[in-house]
Amino acid sequence: VYLPGNGPSGICLSYFLSGHRPYVKESAAHPNPILHRKLQDIVGQSLLEQDLQFLCEGLEGRSPSPLALLFDTLVRPDGDLGGSAESQLTWRREAGHCVPHLVLGKGPPGGAWHSMEGSMFTLSLGDWMELPSMRFRDWMRRRGRHLRNDRATTRDIAQYYQHYVKEFSLQEHFVLGSVVTSVRPLQGHSVALDPAEEMCGQPGGGADAPPEMYEIRGFHEVESGNASPFCLYAQNVVLATGSYDSPSRLGVEGEDLPHVFHTIRDLERALEMQQLDPDSDPVLIVGAGLTAADAVLLARHSNVPVLHAFRRAVTDSGMVFSQLPQLMFPEYHKVHSMMAEQSLCSCGPYQGYTSLPRHCLLRLSPDRKCLLEDAGGKRTVFNISMAFILIGSNPNLSFLPDHGRPLALDQQQPISSKRNPLDTELFTYECVRQPGLYALGPLAGDNFVRFLQGGALGVAASLLKKM
To answer: What Cα–Cα distance (Å) separates residue 1 from each residue in 152, 203, 255, 421?
Structure first.
């Protein structure tokens, strides 16, 4: 089995496939009486060998995935109520149930978490970011650190995932510096390999690929800067590449200019290299989500002036800020207040910041000017130093035929973790239209770490039945 993607989805599945098996505790006492009765019948039995669909029946919660709800409620029986009830599961490592696999990733284990600005706080509670058998709060305490409002920094989360792989000796399954360029099903014919290509790993390797096999091509980045190509074969491939690889674009004129960027990491670099300061022309930040809010906070922390443009009205009930408790997320509510109180037409208390609600960016020019249009059709030109278009991101599935569109719920639309994920079976996460190909995490619509673990359970159970 090969897993392109070494973020939390890939790490969690590797944990399962390395022989770690969840069992229902003898002392299990779940607050849901129906689920409790079901659990009493399987005490001492591995969850991987149960009728998962039966266990999921009747569960409700914050995820549309039945398996995500099942695993989450077993690990955090009253998590949504803020309680601290014990997990209903205990874990055993059984070497006889290992599934040979390799996790392919470009950077260190943790995936996109290592590319985020490290001082930002997670949206989810710190405890909801943890993976099986290693409590995040305990790990933080051992390092002499504590959660702030029960939330952690992205740097802490990235380091936790990296440590998790070492803690459970999963390193042998991780091939770092690997970039996958092609995953395609073979139609029963053998493939002649270029002598320059090297094979790595044991699962499914071989030059003559039998029917119903997948070919995975890519290259290893080596220290010398050169790329060493590889070609692998496997009967099963699990896509776990997440949704942060391809920032969304507006498609406006000038979007490819050198002073226009699409990630908050680019803003962090500009500040580190002192390319921006309080005397710079304003940076233009486009977007009304949490990434754009983080960029506003980052720029203002360095006293860099900000023009903040977004399409919605500040009072729009669909804005994410209205969904966040103020006591837990004070920094985001501060940005929301800035957006409401400091527009072009009002003189608010936030000097150096200007809110431009219901504005659309029309054009960016090489002389560092931008053209914006408000809801009434009035157009205004602003001088800027840099522009940061932070309107979300999409998975990069360029290594699949037609960027994976034939595998999506809506085959006519691009893949989107929120609006158009891959079409997968509910209890195995196997792609409906491509047997042997699985999807985990955001690719399957599970956008939070607490919920993607149920998908890993389903994939692991399915793969074990195939062995």
So the answer is: 33, 6, 40, 22
At residue 346, the pLDDT reads 67
DSSP 423: -
Confidence of residue 81 (pLDDT cuts 50, 70, 90): low
Q: If DSSP codes are grouped into helix, strand and coil, which group holds residue 97? A: helix
Q: What DSSP assignment string belongs to 338-370?
A: HHHH-BTTS--S-TTEEEEETEEEEEEETTTEE
CA dihedral 65→70→71→73, nearest 10 degrees, is: 120
pLDDT tens digit sequence for 259-301: 999 999 899 999 999 999 999 999 999 999 989 999 999 999 9
The span from the CA of 457 to the CA of 47, in Å, is 9
The count of residues in the chain is 467
Tokens 């504590």 sit at which residue? 146
153-166 pLDDT per residue, tens: 888 999 999 999 99
CB-based burial label for 250 (10 Å; 0-12, 13-18, 19+): middle
Structure tokens at 19: 């022989």
**Which residue in the block uniquely carries the two structure tokens 């790595």?**
200
Helix 8-17 vs helix 154-167: angle between axes, to the nearest 10 degrees? 20
The alpha carbon torsion through 456, 461, 463, 464 (nearest 10 deg) reads: 140
284-305 exposure pattern, b = at least 16 Cβ within 10 A, e = fewer: bbbbbebbbbbbbbbbbeeebb
Residue keyed to tokens 């390319």: 275
Q: When comparing pLDDT for 160 and 127, which is higher?
A: 160
Q: Residue 463: helix, strand or coil by DSSP?
A: helix
Q: Model confidence over 374-423: pLDDT tens digits?
A: 999 999 999 999 999 999 888 889 999 999 999 999 999 888 888 899 99
